[in-house]
Amino acid sequence: VRTRVAIIGAGPAGLLLAHLLDAAGIESIVVDARSREQIETTIRAGILEQGTVETLAETGASARVLAEGHRHDGIELRFDGAGYRIDFAGLVGRAVWLYPQHEVLRDLIAARLAAGQDLRFGVRAERVEDASGARPRVILTDADGQPLTIEADFVVGADGSRSVVREAVTGSSTGGYFREYPFAWFGILCEAPPSAPELIYSNSPDGFALISQRSESVQRMYFQCDPEVDAASFSEAELWDALQRRVPGTTLREGPIFQRDVLRFRSFVAHELRRGRAALVGDAAHTVPPTGAKGMNLAVADVRLLAPALQALLLEGDERLIDAFAETALERIWKAQHFSWWMTSLLHVAPGASEFDRRRQLGELRSVVGSAHGAAYLAEAYTGWPLAR
Ligand code: DHB
Q1: How close is the Cα of 189 to the center of ligand 1, in Å?
Q2: Where are the transmembrane segments (predicted)?
């Protein structure tokens, strides 16, 4: 089949790109190896930057984000037995929204299908050919196991951290700048009311915990754990004990735990984001550790740059924006990499940390919460830097 833009991956990046291209009159095909059900039910992060919310609402991608999402004007940083509020509204006049990523995906999939657009599930991309030529091709296997080729004017890899498009762009499926971390997050979903009005990010001698939310009756919580831990090996009582111990001074409201998972930590930026007529966006281009919830927001920021660049290239033959895409995108990507690394190192206890490391970390936390200047950096980065207009 032929199309103008072949988009590999029906996550936030791929689906939003298709939506923005359609609004500009550019046809695309989106494929994903997963099923619609899998995409719409996998639990991911839940915090949207103000600019992400504005993008979704203003482009008609999601009416529900404003109706059903919850605005949060701050977070609590907790350490040494006390909590300190970071007042986003007061510090930078911005906010974030709690609205789960799989709800964003449900909205984007519904919008795309309602517009009668080509979106295919269970279709696996194998490789990209001739990315540097004028008509690149994607070689795929369709839902019935039959070979399929999509010929396009441009190929976009929005296919996540194990991207198959990456090799065509960077020359290697793994090539990039990496950082590993010696810990992971144990995540749970439970049936309970919220324990606090806002999210709590807690640094404790036992390690990090994040008390997040999903709704009035469902809560999302995480605690720092060994990356090799077996999620099934904990009883519910052990999980509550692990969480409670990491938020000293707060009493969590407990309830049945109905889902658990272990999230690996990694920082990654691909060596290149674009080659010829192929580009990478979202996790295919970069991965951040979850602390600070930058993953989906960064994917949206990438797409906000790539959509107008493809519009100029494909409708007017103007290559200036696509030529500038990687450099412009990388500015924000490295700022978000730094912020995610910084939030992680600020709040977690590294295995083998010395008493010096511990006390230095508390000094760092006090320089954030004890100063409007320190707190404003966190507030600015967390709520999100301005997006391309
Ligand atoms: C959530 C995840 C994050 O990584 C974060 O920083 C805040 C919230 C969440 O899943 O709710």
Answers
A1: 12
A2: none
Structure tokens at 93: 């006049």
Domains defined for the chain, CATH in brackets: 5-70+97-178+267-347 (3.50.50.60), 179-265+349-382 (3.30.9.10)
Structure tokens at 253: 């409201």
> Given this model, what pLDDT does residue 150 score?
98
Which atom of ligand 1 is least distant from the CA of 343? Answer: 6
**Which residue in 268, 261, 308, 304 sits closest to 288, CA to CA?**
268
- pTM for the full model? 0.97
What radius of gyration, in Å, describes the C-alpha atoms of the chain?
21
- Decide: helix, strand or coil at residue 37: helix
Say if ligand 1 is within 6 A of residue 220 CB.
yes
> What is the rounded CA–CA span in Å between residue 143 and residue 243?
42
* pLDDT tens track for 322-346: 999 999 999 999 999 999 999 999 9
Distance CA 43, CA 103 (A): 10
**Residue 181 annotated in active site:** no
Cα 45 to averaged position of ligand 1 atoms, centre (Å): 5
Smallest CA-to-CA distance from 329 within 288, 291, 299, 296 is with 299
Closest CA to 162 of 263, 329, 285: 285
Is there a catalytic annotation at residue 201? yes
- The rounded percent of the chain whose pLDDT value lies above 90 is 97
